[in-house]
C-alpha cells in the first residue's frame, strides 16, 4: 500500500478512535462512581465497540434489511428515551442544561430578565445558550418537558442522513453507533441538549452541502443560516465556520462585507430585546450568556486552534468526506485541550474524573461527524 493510501486509510478509520475515546471517557468516569472496576468496564466497552465495527464492516445485509434495522433501532431509542424521561427526576441530576432552558423560558414568560435566573444546580450557574436555542425548545417547554426535544433531534438526524445519502445501510450504521454510545445515553439521562444542538447544526450542514448553498452561490441564504446557527450556542459556530470559511474567503470583498453585515444585523435583532431589557441598569452587560460560555479556557488554546482551523480550511479541497473527518478531529481536539487545561489550571489537586468542572460532555459535539464519517466511508478508503 502506498503512502497516500495509508494516510487515507488511517484518516478514514480514525473516526473510530474518536468514537472510542469519547465513549470510553464516559464509561470510565461514571463506572468509577460504582462498585465496578473502571478498567474492566472500559475494556468491555472497547470489545463491544469492536464487535459493532466488525459487524458494520461485513456489509452482509440488504437495503431492505437495513431499513428494518434503522426503524427498529429508532423504535428502541425512542422507547429508551421515554423510559428515562419518565423515571429520572431532572432535579436529581447535577447537570444544568435542561434547567438552563426551562428556567430561562419560565422567566421570559413571567416578565423576568431570563439571563439573570440561575439553574437548579446552584445560584452561580446561569443559562448560557443563546436566544434562538431557547425559542426552538419552546414547543417542548409548552408540552411540559424540554427533554422531549431528544425525540425530535434524533429523528431529524436519522432523516437527514438518509435524505443526504439515500442509503438505508449508511443510515442504519450511523444510528446503530449513536444508540450504542454511552455518551448519548448520558445526554438522555440528564436531559442534556448539547448533543441535540450539535445534531441540528450537522443537519444544517448536510442541507447546505446537498443543495449547494455557499457564500458564492446563495450568499443571503448562507448568511441567514450562519446567523441562526450562531444564535444557538457559541460551540455551534465552530463546525459551521469550518464549512463555509473557505468559500467565504474566496468570495469578492463586497460579498464578504454583505454576508458579515447580514449576520451582524440578524444576531443583533435577536439580542436587542435583552440588551434593551433594562436601560437604567443595563443588566445585559452585567449578566449575559457570553459570560457563562467564556468564563474559563485559555486564549493560547484558542489561538492555537484558530491557526489549526485555518490550516484545515485551506487544506481540504471541497471534499465533504474530508471536511467531516477533519471537523470530528478538530471538535474533539479543541474541547479535549480546553477540558484538560481547565482541570490543571483550577483543580489540579484532584483526579480529573472526580473534578465536577471536568466536563467531558463537550466531547460529544464531535459525534455527529464521527458517525457520518464511519457510516459513509467509501470502499476505496478501506
Topology diagram in text:
Elements: H1 3-31, H2 38-58, H3 63-87, H4 97-109, H5 131-136, H6 138-142, H7 149-165, H8 168-179, H9 182-189, H10 194-211, H11 219-230, H12 234-249, H13 253-275, H14 289-293, H15 299-315, H16 320-346, H17 367-375
Helix pairs in contact: 1-2, 1-16, 1-17, 3-8, 7-8, 7-10, 8-17, 10-12, 11-13, 12-15, 15-16, 16-17
Helicity, in percent? 55-70%
- Please state the oligomeric state of the protein chains shown: single chain
Indicate the radius of gyration in whole angstroms.
21 Å
Count all strands and give the number. 0
Instruction: Provide the structure class.
Output: mainly alpha
Please write the string of helix (H) and strand (E) elements.
HHHHHHHHHHHHHHHHH
Q: Characterize the overall form.
A: globular
pLDDT averaged residue by residue: 88
Biggest sheet overview:
none
Total of DSSP H or I helical runs spanning 4+ residues: 17
Extract low-pLDDT stretches: 1-10
Distance between the termini: 11 Å
Strand residue content:
under 5%
Amino acid at each position: 500500500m502506498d503512502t497516500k493510501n495509508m494516510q487515507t486509510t488511517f484518516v478514514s478509520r480514525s473516526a473510530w478512535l474518536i468514537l472510542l475515546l469519547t465513549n470510553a471517557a464516559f464509561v470510565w468516569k461514571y463506572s468509577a462512581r460504582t462498585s465496578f472496576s473502571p478498567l474492566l468496564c472500559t475494556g468491555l466497552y472497547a470489545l463491544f465497540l469492536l464487535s459493532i465495527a466488525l459487524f458494520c464492516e461485513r456489509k452482509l445485509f440488504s437495503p431492505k434489511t437495513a431499513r428494518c434495522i434503522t426503524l427498529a433501532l429508532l423504535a428502541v431509542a425512542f422507547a429508551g428515551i421515554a423510559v428515562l424521561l419518565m423515571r429520572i427526576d431532572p432535579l436529581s441530576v447535577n447537570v444544568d442544561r435542561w434547567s438552563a432552558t426551562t428556567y430561562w423560558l419560565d422567566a421570559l414568560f413571567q416578565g423576568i430578565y431570563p439571563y439573570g435566573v440561575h439553574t437548579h444546580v446552584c445560584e452561580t450557574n446561569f443559562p448560557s445558550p443563546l436566544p434562538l436555542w431557547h425559542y426552538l425548545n419552546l414547543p417542548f417547554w409548552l408540552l411540559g418537558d424540554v427533554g422531549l426535544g431528544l425525540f425530535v433531534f434524533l429523528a431529524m438526524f436519522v432523516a437527514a442522513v438518509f435524505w443526504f445519502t439515500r442509503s438505508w445501510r449508511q443510515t442504519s450504521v450511523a444510528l446503530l453507533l449513536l444508540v450504542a454510545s454511552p455518551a448519548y445515553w448520558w445526554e438522555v439521562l440528564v436531559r442534556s441538549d448539547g448533543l441535540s444542538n450539535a445534531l441540528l447544526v450537522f443537519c444544517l450542514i448536510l442541507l447546505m452541502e446537498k443543495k449547494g448553498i455557499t457564500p458564492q452561490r446563495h450568499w443571503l441564504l448562507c448568511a441567514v443560516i450562519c446567523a441562526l446557527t450562531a444564535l444557538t450556542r457559541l460551540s455551534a459556530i465552530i463546525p459551521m465556520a469550518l464549512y463555509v470559511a473557505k468559500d467565504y474567503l474566496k468570495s469578492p470583498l463586497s460579498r464578504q462585507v454583505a454576508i458579515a453585515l447580514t449576520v451582524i444585523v440578524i444576531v443583533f435583532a435577536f439580542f436587542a430585546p435583552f440588551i434593551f431589557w433594562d436601560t437604567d441598569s443595563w443588566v445585559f452587560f452585567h449578566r449575559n450568556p457570553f459570560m457563562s460560555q467564556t468564563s474559563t479556557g485559555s486564549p493560547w488554546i484558542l489561538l492555537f486552534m484558530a491557526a489549526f482551523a485555518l490550516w484545515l480550511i485551506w487544506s481540504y479541497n471541497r471534499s465533504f468526506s474530508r471536511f467531516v473527518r477533519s471537523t470530528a478531529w478538530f471538535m474533539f481536539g479543541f474541547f479535549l485541550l480546553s477540558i484538560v487545561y481547565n482541570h490543571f489550571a483550577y483543580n489540579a489537586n484532584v483526579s480529573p474524573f472526580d473534578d465536577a468542572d471536568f466536563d467531558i460532555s463537550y466531547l460529544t459535539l464531535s459525534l455527529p461527524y464521527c458517525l457520518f464519517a464511519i457510516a459513509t466511508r467509501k470502499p476505496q478508503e478501506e
